[in-house]
Amino acid sequence: MPDDPQWPTQDDDIDSDAARSEPTVQVSRPSVDQPTMRFPLAAVLAAPSTQEPLRSSPVRSAPNGSQSGPGAPGGPSTASGGSSGGGAGGKSHGPIGPDVGQPRALPVRVEPKGDQRTTELSVPNAKTARVDQLPNSEASWFDQAVRPEQQGRQAQRPEPTKRVDQLQGQASQRQEPPRQEPQRQEPQRQEPQRQEPQRQESPRQEAPRPEQPRPVPPPRQEPRDLPVTGYDEEPEDRLTTDEPKKSRKPLVVVLSLLVVAALAGATVYAVNEFGGTKAIETRPPAPPAVVQPLVKAATAGGPAPTPAGVQQALAGPSGNGALGTLTGSVIDPASGAALWQRGDTTPATPASSLKILTAAAALLSLEKTDQLSTKVVQGAEPGTVVIVGGGDPTISGAPGRSVYPGAATLDDLAGQVKAKGPVTKVQFDLSRYTGEALGPQWESVDIAGGSVAPIVPFMLDGGRIDQTNVNGARTGSPAQAAADAFAQRVGASAATAGAAPQGAQVLGEIKSAPIEQLVDNMMQISDNVLTEAIAREIAIKTGNEASFAGGVKAVRDVLTKNGFDLTSATFVDGSGLSATNKIPAKLLTDVLTAAAKPTLDDPRTAKLRPLLTALPVAGGSGTLAGRYTGTAAPGKGWVRAKTGTLTGVNALAGVVVDVDGRVLVFSFMSASPRNPETEVRPALDVMAAALRGCGCS
Question: Are 358 and 573 in contact (CB under 8 A)?
Answer without folding.
Answer: no
